[in-house]
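Subject: sequence -> structure tokens, single chain

Hey, anyone have a minute? Need the predicted structure for the following. Not urgent.
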Amino acid sequence: MNAYSKYFEKIKVRRSPEAERATSAPACQWDGCNEPGTHRAPVGRMAEGQYFKFCFDHVREYNKGFNYFSGLAEGDIARFQKEALTGHRPTWKIGVNKGAQASPDFSQKRSGRAGPNGRMRDPYGMFKDGIDPSDRPRTRKLKSLEAKAMETLGLDPSATGTMIKQRYKELVKRHHPDANGGDRASEDRFRDVIQAYRMLKQAGLC
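Reply:
Had a minute. Here:
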């Protein structure tokens, strides 16, 4: 058989990935080591993205003693760890905005596509100050049942929510069965007051 047969020339030996890396890898950067540097190890702080090339045994030895904060004071380490919680981005306390006014005009503060949001309807002025909408003067005409309920409580149609509640408590206390001495008319009045208050509450007036 011919030792230089064409069939022998076509035979290829498949090498393992580890062997390929070892062949193409540079020499280990550990002093006195001539093994292939197949493993990366970080250089350290202020050199992010840079790596040493070590062999397997020496990269393990290097990682055992690696300290990212080497040379930093305790205060600097604590500050770094605290800032790492927010990805080293600036933060502010909730509700703190020195440039904001007591009653901001959102239509002027917003810009771009967010501008129209500042022009939304706010008939009760809920976003202008801290006043309860139920304490504001009446801005719409009452329906017939609502006006009758106001009349039952002896209130003006422009009465606020606080005035309605105060008047309701006063009348309930006065006409309660335990306080009216068995007066039938007072009991009827008591039921009318309760029904009137429920009507106004369901209408959102108190």
